[in-house]
Design goal:
Layout lengths: L3 E4 L7 E5 L8 E3 H4 L19 E2 L2 E5 L2 E3 L12 H12 L4 H12 L4 H4 L8 E5 L4 H12 L4 E5 L2 H8 L5 E3 L16 E6 L4 E4 L19 E4 L3 H17 L8 E7 L2 E3 L3 E3 L10 E7 L9 E8 L7 E6 L13 E7 L4 E6 L9 E7 L5 E7 L4 E4 L2 E2 L12 E5 L5 E8 L14 E13 L8 E4 L19 H4 L7 H14 L4 E6 L1 E3 L7 E4 L7 E3 H12 L7 E7 L21 H4 L9 H5 L6
Parallel strand pairs: 7-8, 7-10, 8-9, 10-28, 25-26, 28-29, 29-33, 30-32
Antiparallel strand pairs: 1-2, 2-3, 4-5, 5-6, 11-12, 13-14, 13-27, 15-18, 16-17, 17-27, 18-25, 18-26, 19-22, 19-27, 20-21, 21-23, 23-24, 31-33
This protein binds NADP nicotinamide-adenine-dinucleotide phosphate.
Length: 606
């Protein structure tokens, strides 16, 4: 709540301070001052007629709060009806006891750090297929770098045995959409997908696929378990559907507003200084043709006054039924028509009324439509108008509401206020009418964009159908594509889903995978032409490096090492080669090359 009273920690209520209310935050009132006869109008006074349980200026609302609240004012009538309406909008049907209990509960709420319980889990990297040959090495590389990892696996016991009992683990099967629960993606910002249809030797193998570690010998392969279509295509569809809602889209996510045929409205309500006895008043409405393009826009407008010690207006969304997960994004972009004033956006990640609001001020330019980017990293945890030094980090996966003075992922608030925080004043504040058209609020991914999904595919995916190819010179998977349930065809279809998804991606297509160590010189190529081998450990390192490289974003490439099949690559454990700067390779990559260009080329008739 922007503004309300709180008893101090002194249980005798010998002094009071205002809660979270910028205007009053630093004001302290002694008991004697509060009840001074010199104060002609009460700031917040509940009279006997409206509350049946009040008696002789003493009100017995709860066991913890028993005094009438008074404060000084600039002598203007207070609109009790609007006060009740405000509480009704945010708290439901107006039971007087409920209203005052909710108010009083906020007076006596715990400290900010106790009140705020959201988890700080942003930035987790989810590894799908973490029990596979590449996947488990990806986990290893991430852990060595100290990065937060979660794994998505089919078999918990197998995963714990392989990765240790302390691994952050979720159980799911990508072929079954219902097993990919939204909770799995909370706090996840990036994903490495090393899931693959299982191919094993026809003659059998040990459960840990020992034959793949025996060096260069050809085993007649067959599909084990789910078909390539199920894993590589249907499974990819399911995974992408789950990720789209969670890891972020290149074009961002509309949180509120109207854009190119799409729209999203939020349950905004006014939350003005009336809740503390002030007389400022605001509203939020949709103007059908008020946007810069003549389309609809939201309009935050009102009249702000410092009478009765007030000085702020805001609009706040009701708490969202399901917390808005914006973990995949870096901030919120507001499209507003400025009026030269400074406003605030507050985002809340708790359902409680009186909690930390992650707050940021923004300046507007008079009479100009402008896009204002507010980075999550610059949100300041504010509680009762003061910065909370030890607040939990902002968790963009848990937005409950917005307030304009804007804030919550459980709610948002947009605000125009005389007060900033920590005792500072808004330099642009003037009393009187104001208007802020807001046509959209969009979550955005900051530039330079880096991949959100790194996928381990396979060299050769475009070759089975490629005209004029000498199959005898191709790897087994290309030659045996049909026998293996069209494995490469479905891998390509899965890749296409990624490229079309709008999720910033990298597709790494290794040549034949080996159990050799990383370290050999590499060849990166595009167009799906090369053959050769590469170490699984090296592929894992490439995947992790791609996560942070803008050069790797939206690229598809093949990779192998320079060492021929006939030669075993080894390293001296005492003197291992230095880790590569993979950006050098990523920088050579081009957009839009997949090898499908060859399939689309029509043969020249002779
Ligand atoms: N082998 C090669 O020479 C070669 C060459 C080029 C490219 N590639 C490609 O490189 C990639 C990685 O290879 P790899 O050797 O690491 O593969 P892998 O060892 O076979 O690992 C596959 C992983 O996917 C998981 N998985 C399979 N189906 C799943 C499902 N429905 N839901 C969730 N997880 C599932 C497996 O889990 P379980 O442990 O539960 O089975 C396993 O963790 C694959 O796409 C492969 O096709 C391989």
């Amino acid at each position: 709540m922007e503004c309300c009273y709180s008893p101090t920690t002194n249980p005798s209520f010998s002094s009071f301070k205002f809660l979270d209310c910028e205007s009053f935050s630093s004001t302290r009132f002694s008991r004697s001052r509060l009840s001074s006869p010199r104060l002609s109008n009460p700031f917040l006074k509940v009279n006997d007629r409206i509350n049946p349980i009040s008696h002789q200026h003493k009100i017995y609302y709860s066991r913890t709060y028993k005094k009438t609240i008074y404060a000084e004012s600039r002598n203007q009538g207070w609109d009790f009806g609007r006060f009740v309406k405000t509480l009704y909008f945010f708290n439901g049907p107006p039971s007087p006891i409920k209203i005052f209990e909710s108010l009083i509960a906020s007076f006596s709420s715990p400290s900010a750090s106790e009140a705020e319980k959201s988890m700080d889990a942003s930035g987790i990297i989810l590894v799908a297929g973490a029990t596979g040959g590449v996947g488990r090495r990806v986990v290893d590389v991430l852990r060595k770098k100290g990065l937060p990892v979660r794994v998505l696996v089919r078999n918990k016991e197998k995963a714990e045995k392989m990765l240790g009992p302390d691994i952050d683990l979720v159980v799911g099967d990508i072929t079954k959409a219902s097993t990919l629960l939204p909770d799995y993606f909370k706090g996840v910002k990036k994903v490495i997908n090393a899931v693959s249809v299982i191919v094993g030797p026809k003659e059998g193998d040990t459960p840990d696929r020992a034959k793949y570690s025996q060096g260069i010998k050809f085993f007649e392969p067959e599909i084990k378990g789910d078909s390539p279509e199920m894993v590589e295509y249907i499974g990819m569809q399911n995974l992408i559907k789950a990720l789209k809602d969670n890891v972020g889209l290149r074009s961002g996510k509309l949180v509120f507003g109207f854009e190119d045929g799409s729209s999203r409205v939020l349950p905004w309500g006014a939350l003005d200084d009336v809740v503390m006895g002030g007389v400022s008043e605001s509203s939020f409405l949709i103007v059908p043709n008020g946007s810069e393009t003549g389309g609809p826009t939201g309009l935050f407008k009102g009249i702000v006054s410092t009478a009765n010690n007030g000085g702020f207006t805001s609009i706040r969304t009701k708490n969202f039924d399901v917390a808005e997960n914006l973990c995949g994004y870096d901030g919120l972009e507001l499209r507003v028509k400025g009026d030269g004033r400074r406003y605030k956006l507050i985002v809340r990640t708790s359902r409680d009324w009186d909690t930390v609001g992650y707050t940021i001020g923004f300046d507007t330019v008079k009479d100009q439509w402008q896009s204002i980017r507010l980075a999550f990293s610059s949100l300041r945890p504010i509680f009762r108008a003061k910065t909370v030094v030890d607040a939990l980090a902002f968790d963009p996966s848990q937005i409950i509401s917005l307030q304009a003075c804007f804030p919550n992922f459980s709610s948002f608030i947009l605000m125009f206020s005389k007060f900033e925080y920590d005792g500072k004043l808004n330099p642009t504040f003037v009393e009187g009418p104001f208007e802020l058209p807001v046509s959209s609020i969009r979550a955005y991914i900051a530039d330079p964009i880096t991949p959100r999904l790194v996928h381990v595919g396979s060299a050769g995916v475009t070759r089975p159908e490629r005209p004029g190819l000498d199959l005898s010179k191709q790897p087994p998977a290309v030659r045996l594509n049909k026998e293996l349930g069209s494995i490469l065809t479905f891998k390509l279809k899965g890749e296409d889903l990624i490229r079309e998804s709008g999720i910033p991606y990298t597709i790494v297509r290794p040549c034949a995978l080996t159990e050799e160590p990383a370290g050999a010189d590499l060849i990166f190529d595009q167009g799906d032409n090369i053959t050769g081998k590469i170490s699984r450990e090296e592929v894992a390192r490439i995947c992790v490096a791609a996560l942070e490289s803008p050069y790797a974003c939206d690229k598809t490439f093949e990779v192998k090492c320079v060492v021929p099949f006939s030669e075993q690559y080894t390293v001296d454990p005492e003197n291992p080669p230095p880790e590569k700067d993979y950006d050098v390779y990523f920088q050579s990559l081009k957009d839009g090359i997949t090898g499908k260009e060859m399939l689309e080329r029509t043969p020249v008739s002779v």
